[in-house]
Amino acid sequence: MVGRESIGIRSFRFLTGALLIIWLVLPLIPLAIWSFARGWFFPSLLPKTWSMKAWEYTFSDTAGVIDSLWLTVGISLAATLLSILVGVPAGRALGMYKFRGKEFVELLILAPIIVPGIAVVLGIHSVFISMGLNNTVSGVILVHLIPTLPYMVLVMAGIFANYDPAFEAQARSLGASPLKTFWYVTLPAIMPGIIVGGLFAFLVSWSQYILTLLIGGGRVVTLPLLLFNFATSGRNDITGAIGMIYILPGIIILLLTARHLSGRSGAVGGFGQI
Amino acid sequence: MSDRLKVFLLLLPALSVIVVLFFGGLLIGLMRSFNYMPVIGLTEPDFSAYVSVFTDREFYLSFMLTFYIAFVSTVISSILAIGAALLLRRQFVGRAIVNFLFQLNLTVPHLVGAIGILYLFSQSGSFARLAAEWGMIARPAEFPALVFDPYAIGIILQYVWKEVPFIGVIVLANMQSIGEDYESVARSLGANRWQSFRHVLLPLVFPGVLSASVMVFAFTFGAYEIPAILGANYPAALPVLAYRKYTDVDLAARPEAMAMAIIIALLSAVMIYFYVRYSRRRIRG
Which residue in the set B106, B261, B284 is minimally distant from A271, CB to CB? Predict the structure, then answer.
């Protein structure tokens, strides 16, 4: 094939590839530049004076960015752990068993992945009021389960579909208790799936905006809320700095899991929501 | 323990969470949209919220705008994603970089993309400055309005930026698992490049494209923060309008917000139907 391809086709491919690369990084560039800029006015193409002011402010105690960063990490970790605890058993049921009503159960789990958060969160908000869950971190963690849990279940169902339960039967026949069998046989086998699914579920929670805004009621200020506020109040330099911090976990997780990030794994479906 | 009981117990925690939070939230929204809430003394359901939504010109403008944004973004993203996947299938200088950027882009939240697009395309943004540098404009106002504009160009650009990699990686994996044998056969039987793509490869990857684009359509129809950053004030996208109604000082507007939420949910239900139809195989994975 390659030998027959003309120079024309090869250079067309190179050009479109180059165009694609530029387009993909383009929106991130002004954010990065703004974070080091000081008074970068029209029509300067690049800032006249460079400064670390925005970064100093971002890392200062008064800005609250660091508090918000840890709060966001905490909420996303909690939502991820809960999703793993609840999602792994359900994934096992869907991946390993055939049962009546399975398609219906799959539909119930798929629905929250496709239905946008705004469609359900207004109703939840009016119930959480009476339960005292509005404006609390626990309320926000709970509501983050709506996008993260179904995602975890689907990823684990994929893992369990390729899992061979014969090893468990052998361990049991050799006298291991169910708990020991789970700990020494099942868990090590599904661990890679839990880690990848968990990292992606973390990102799904990390990127939530409207659920946090409504249920947190402005009291639970996660990083995306802070970013939005600075962006709409015209503080471009601080927005740039927070934006850079905000995309960092995604880049770290990408470096850890790049080979799982192909469309072939069901895991990629969750990225529609980020 | 029987298998039936085992399955039931394994599913119970997850289904409880989803049914209570997700379907509970939907149900409460539905009840409140009909002004029906016995707990707080509303025992006479009525259609007043729907009547005022459907007689409100702003709602129609907002619905049309949101549908237009979702439709145009999904179609453009799907076409470009197929093109990008065709490109990434082949060896070329820079393929590894495109691959990496595709994956990087998947992890960047929509909100960051929206702010990036704002800084690029606003009237004092990077492209306006470039136009000034080249003497095409003298003042920011002379640069065409690409954000906060009636055609929602900024919003669509943002979605295309985010969704091309999303649909692209799914289509690419599809193409790689199909392989090139079918196309080779078509080519050896005399089909040209276009014919072997149009009549052989495209029909094979189309279900995958469709199931990914259904997710994209539902997302773009219900997203709040992107139109809130990049959209015009009037008409606003439907999720923005629903949020405004819900947080209005006038509490009477809340049922209207709920009615809009239900309309968004109904549209997503249609999307779920198409998703299930075209991707049964994928879920089973």
Answer: B106
Is residue A11 domain-shared with residue A97, that is, in the same domain? Answer: no
The crossing angle, in degrees rounded to 10, of helices B202-222 and B153-178 is: 150
Mutate to test the interface with A, among B4, B20, B103 (most CBs of A within 10 A): B103
> Does A3 contact B at CB distance below 8 Å?
no
Taking contacts as CB-CB distances below 8 angstroms, the residues of chain B near A193 are: none
Query: Helix (H) and strand (E) counts for chain B?
Result: 14, 0
Does the structure's ipTM exceed the value 0.90?
A: yes
The answer to whether A71 contacts chain B (CB < 8 Å) is no
A35 touches chain B (CB under 8 A): no
pLDDT (tens digit per residue) in A80-138? 999 999 999 999 999 999 999 999 999 999 999 999 999 999 999 988 988 999 999 99
Chain A CB contacts of B274 under 8 Å are none
Crossing angle for the helix pair A65-96 and A236-257, nearest 10 degrees?
30
Q: What is the CATH number of the domain that holds B238?
A: 1.10.3720.10
Contact yes or no for A20 and B98 at CB 8 A: yes
Alpha helices in B134-192 (DSSP H): 153-178, 181-188
Tell me the whole-structure pTM to 2 decimals. Answer: 0.93
CATH number of the domain to which A267 belongs: 1.10.3720.10
Whether the CB-CB separation of B21 and B29 falls below 8 Å is answered with no
Residue-wise pLDDT for A24-74, tens only, equals 999 999 999 999 998 898 889 999 999 999 999 999 988 899 999 999 999
DSSP B8: H
Choice among A3-7, A244-248, B27-31, B141-145 with the minimum mean pLDDT? A3-7
